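User: If only I could read backbone structure tokens as easily as an amino acid sequence. Those tokens are not coordinates but codes from a learned vocabulary of shapes. Could you go through the record with me and say what the backbone is doing? Here is the record:
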Amino acid sequence: MKAVRLESVGNISVRNVGIPEPGPDDLLVKVEACGICGTDRHLLHGEFPSTPPVTLGHEFCGIVVEAGSAVRDIAPGARITGDPNISCGRCPQCQAGRVNLCRNLRAIGIHRDGGFAEYVLVPRKQAFEIPLTLDPVHGAFCEPLACCLHGVDLSGIKAGSTVAILGGGVIGLLTVQLARLAGATTVILSTRQATKRRLAEEVGATATVDPSAGDVVEAIAGPAGLVPGGVDVVIECAGVAETVKQSTRLAKAGGTVVILGVLPQGEKVEIEPFDILFRELRVLGSFINPFVHRRAADLVATGAIEIDRLISRRISLDEAPDVISNPAAAGEVKVLVIPSAERVAQQ
């Protein structure tokens, strides 16, 4: 089968590899769709820890074609979305219920072979069934949505909250929708790209701001801004130093900042601890998706989240290395890899 392989840092290609064989507790899944994530680019450039050589791809869904001998509750023919993050269940963090902080955490598409391939092995406990009537490409959004859902849970957004979201990529646009579902009545998205600002307003943002047009802090939290004094919750979704710096200045006194975007490992950002202390800000990191993948899958399956407008294009496995090797195109939100060349040709 074809697979997109990270052979080493900076070295990615399509190779023919053997179809994996499921162990007793595994599912062999024929991949229908797998999303390209900013993390894939970080992996390629050595900015996020991984264990190459490995097949990339952690945002996937597909059809079960074979179940291991110990699997009793999912049969071939079922459609599943995979939670890629595999915790050990034994370390102190796992035993304390913090499975996302597992000392032995391993992820499909990062530490073991992932979904940029025709087939992927998924442990049964990482698989969540979704309807066969669902557009299969929608299933590839369950993993990024789950990460956003964890961040929104941590943020404490409630009915009537004011929220600023920094970054107009897929994480920002999914978070806009989750913030509205959580009850926020003001949701402001900041991004430079006009197409993404328009899209944000189409999927639920009450206002958008162009940070290149002036001082974004003044535009949102200044005396004449959209929310004078700052918002209840700021969620940083861009994964760049500039927006992390802005985040604490956009929160009101007593507000909450959630860092959801992924900066390259080792990158530093200056902050003012006195401001965090004096205004008693909560500054939280949100890492992956503990215990929320089922909720995310249900949100996708019920149509509560707008997905189709977030899909920029669909590509084949052969095209994936070039796309991953280059920055996202202007206005691009989510690129999906469709392993079936015939399926791509029909789009």
User: Anything to note?
Assistant: Confidence is low (pLDDT under 50) at residues 342-347. The chain is about 25% helix and 25% strand. The domain at 148-285 is CATH 3.40.50.720 (Rossmann fold).
